[in-house]
């Protein structure tokens, strides 16, 4: 009909299956053997290497690069995995431009840093290709530890505990283990079955029972775990998403970015519903990830709107560049004020420009603009809903997350916690380190208890 405005132009297959598969190919092509050797030869093998200092998991970077340079690829992979059992995932998803590669002494105006992340991936990929299990469980201590959540924090903790000879039971609410490695990281960073093969490497050492479909707070509670096990580690990540706090947040076409990202990771990409015009609200990596992936799925326009300035965006400069080179338009200094709909279907999002007032506070300027939208993705952060922790005693929280000390001990003497459910940077590599540190601390606690019991 002439003049008719079509509301909700959302459909699957905006691009051919081949185009979609091409768009979702590797963000960084893997290094060839020659490239790996050439790149490792660029390393200066610095004493007190700043790259190792900058690595949250303390990987001996020059040590593993030297092994690659001498052709000992399995040795290199083993050095990486000894410190970071998810060294393969981290080689793909770590913001290296803000960690090890940023501080690499080769990172000067005349040169560029050694590509540490890609070398890490090269070595660990090779270990997986050779189907080598470099670790084995330590002699049985007779102690049994419960781990809640099979994400990077929980899996890393379980692996280190098993290496130290403790038996571990992991309770995971989802059907598949891996946490956000399996359900959240961008599909073009985590190709194929990378998350699953890493879980295989971890669990295969023995002494780890993985129970999926088991939720803390529903199927059992913290009191049950503390009664049955010698110690407990909590790594349940973020289990809630922040709301915009405006009307119409639940109408058709409005999604939580993390829920849709999970569909991108788990479903056939050709069948996903994709809007012609997509709007994303948020400034962190989740916002960038959904924006880039919607563009790769064939959305005609994708506009990411952030309420503050570019420098305040949580997404790294590299991630912002990835978004822009994929055709995402980034608009800053604007906040959503209204979601417009017709027949319960999203039609447009209205924004108000923002500015920083003389007190340093962000305020709306009163000027507005509207973006037509078939789909709107909310990516303004995830948080911890502490209700699953309920019990006779509850671990203390700080800033809405579980309060864990430097050894990742909570306020309860036999309970540790780490990863996104505790304070700190929300990164895979940080969650892995938390799990590792907690396991070492749990081991000390169990050894002291054993000593006292036999003393
Ligand atoms: C969209 C997105 C993209 C990201 N991209 C990157 C990136 O590129 N690089 C990077 O370094 N980091 C990235 N991150 C952050 C990174 O994924 C997290 O910091 C990391 O996964 C945290 O690990 P975790 O083990 O604490 O939590 P999670 O990975 O969330 O794992 C927690 C596990 O606990 C389970 N669980 C929850 N509640 C319960 C319960 N009640 N009982 C039992 N089990 C439960 C969950 O199902 C889950 O499996 C990204 C995050 C998101 C959301
Ligand atoms: S800082 Fe750069 S050059 Fe020095 S050891 Fe690390 S990777 Fe090699």
Radius of gyration using CA atoms only: 23 Å
Name the beta content range. 15-25%
Structural class: alpha/beta
Bound molecules: flavin-adenine dinucleotide, iron/sulfur cluster
Broad shape:
globular
If you had to describe this structure to a student in words, what would you say it looks like?
The protein has 455 residues and is of the alpha/beta class. The protein contains 16 helices and 19 strands. The strands form six sheets. It has a five-stranded parallel β-sheet, with helices on both faces. A five-stranded parallel β-sheet has the order 7-15-9-10-11. α14 (285-296) links the parallel β9 and β10 (301-305). α4 runs antiparallel to α5 (73-83) and α5 packs across α8. The structure holds flavin-adenine dinucleotide and iron/sulfur cluster (SF4). Flavin-adenine dinucleotide (FAD) is lined by residues 93-94, 148-154, 171-174, 179-180, 184-185, 189, 215-217, 235-239, 258, 261, 285-286, 289, 388, 419-420, 426-429, 431. The site of flavin-adenine dinucleotide has 39 residues, from α9, β3, α13, α14 and α16.
